[in-house]
# Entry
Amino acid sequence: MKYIMRTCVGREDYAEYLHQKIPELIELKDESFDPMKSFMNALEAAGDDEAIHLEDDAILTDDFQGKARKVIDANPNMVIQFFSMRKADLTIGTRIENGSTFLAAVCFYLPPKMSRGLRLYFPSWDRRDEHPTGLDLTIADYLKKTKQKYLIHCPNLADHRIGKSEIDSRRSSKRVSLTFKQ
# Structure
């Protein structure tokens, strides 16, 4: 399993927190100020391995690795979303969704070969001009094209720090999970 964090300048404290939670964390710093390029680099770093992809502003539950491994072992061939902000998280809980609904890139799992598949798909993704920071939309479109579903796990094992987005300052600063438990 690879754990890959995308980060940028000014988020060193966030990155250090995640390194303490996951000592073997691979840190990829975006020095080009291009979130999509950073995501492509993360997919390349994962290669054909299974990987959990994280943004630097993720907050993780206690024993994140152990809890995530249990969920993955029960669903080894599915994309798994460990962060969500949907009302259905409270009313339905853990569930399988159509790939086209994939949203948010705070913390998610890609099974073996999926990172490479996404990396190879990206050059043909035709919505980059419309969504230049839409890496989650890239995943949604890939899952839709390949007719795959994904799992949203509740309670969420990751949350999103309250604060200004480095990717898009127009986003709400309070994009947080409804089910996260420390």
